[in-house]
Design a protein that fits this description.
This protein is of the alpha+beta class and 133 residues long. The protein has a single domain, classed as 60s Ribosomal Protein L30, Chain: A. A six-stranded mixed beta sheet has the order 1-2-3-6-4-5, covered by helices on one side. A hairpin with a 2-residue loop joins strand 2 and strand 3. Helix 1 packs parallel to helix 2. The longest helix is centred in the middle third of the chain and has 18 residues. It starts with 9 loop residues before the first strand and ends with a strand. The model has no long low-confidence stretch (mean pLDDT 95).
Length: 133
Amino acid sequence: MRRKKVTVPRERIKTPLAPAAIGPYCQAMMVGNTLYCSGQIAINPKTGQLSTDGAEIQAEVVLDNLGAVLRAAGLSYHHVVQCTVYLADINDYAQVNEVYSRYFSDDAPTRETVQVGALPRGARVEISCVAVR
């Protein structure tokens, strides 16, 4: 028995104010009222260069990049319901958490934070998120 292919309306979100995808994926995808943001690393969207600063500065750049993608979809940090934080070194948790709390304070989304073996381009921090309109 063949399954019927179901097509879900979706819109690719792209902004020059965040780094272009460095692989076969898009910055974000809007499906209905839900935005799925690909992981961002600390790449300066103007230069294409990765910040070589510590985890705290990288977290700021990452969250600014995510903010640009959210705004391109007509959303803000307030719409974020879930984040995943990837760290190259779990010892950076406190510094990243301090920066993260400036972007998500009173109404913080759900979140998991994990240490990974490595991140693209030698980044120390990567964050992805899901937001709902």
